[in-house]
Amino acid sequence: MNPDLIEPPYPLQAHLGFRMVDWREDYSRFDLPIVPHLGNRFGIVHGGVHAMMLDTVMGFAGCFTGDPDAPQQAMTLSMTTNFLSQAKGDLLIAEGFRTGGGRKTFFARAQITDNTGELIATATGVFRYRGRG
C-alpha cells in the first residue's frame, strides 16, 4: 500500500485505535486490537464495534482514487449485518470489497475475522458518493 494514501485517522478511529492496513481499488482492510474497553456486559467485543468496522471498510473500499489530492467520500444508505461468532484471538481484521455500482452509488460487502481465522461477522451495504453530480 502506498503510504501517501493513508488518511489521518478520523475521530472515532483515533479513539478506538483501529488502523488502515491496506487500501486499493475495490478493497480496504483495517485492524483493531481487542482491548477491554471494547467489551459488552458479557466481556466480548460489542456488536456495535463490529458494525462500525464493517461500515468503515465497505466505505473505504468504494472510495479509493489512488490520488491523495483527490479524496472521495461516501455515506451509508443501508447496511445489513450478520453476527456469526465471537473472537477467539486478540485482533479483529475487517476487510471490505466494492462489488458494483455506478456514478452516484456503490455496493459493497465486508467480513471480520480474528487473527485465528474465526469468521465473526459479515455485512453488505449500499453507499452514496458525496460530492459527485
Number of separate helices? 2
Determine the mean pLDDT.
93
Helix content: 10-25%
How would you sum up the major sheet?
Answer: 6 strands, antiparallel
Order of helices and strands: HEEHEEEE
Structural overview:
- This protein has a single domain, classed as Roll (Thiol Ester Dehydrase, Chain A).
- The mean pLDDT is 93.
- It contains two helices and six strands.
- Strands 1-2-4-5-6-3 form a six-stranded antiparallel β-sheet.
- The chain has 133 residues and is of the alpha+beta class.
List keywords for this structure.
about 130 residues; Thiol Ester Dehydrase, Chain A; six-stranded antiparallel sheet; 2 helices; 6 strands
Short synopsis of the structure:
It catalyses: a medium-chain fatty acyl-CoA + H2O = a medium-chain fatty acid + CoA + H(+); a long-chain fatty acyl-CoA + H2O = a long-chain fatty acid + CoA + H(+); a fatty acyl-CoA + H2O = a fatty acid + CoA + H(+). The chain has helices at about 10-15, 45-60; strands at about 20-25, 25-35, 75-85, 90-100, 105-115, 120-130. It has about 130 residues and is α+β, with helices and mostly antiparallel strands.
Topology:
Elements (H helix, E strand, L loop, with lengths): L10 H6 L2 E6 L2 E7 L13 H16 L10 E11 L7 E11 L3 E10 L4 E12 L3
Antiparallel strand pairs: 1-2, 2-4, 3-6, 4-5, 5-6
Pfam families: 4HBT (PF03061)
Family: Belongs to the YigI thioesterase family.
Keywords: Hydrolase
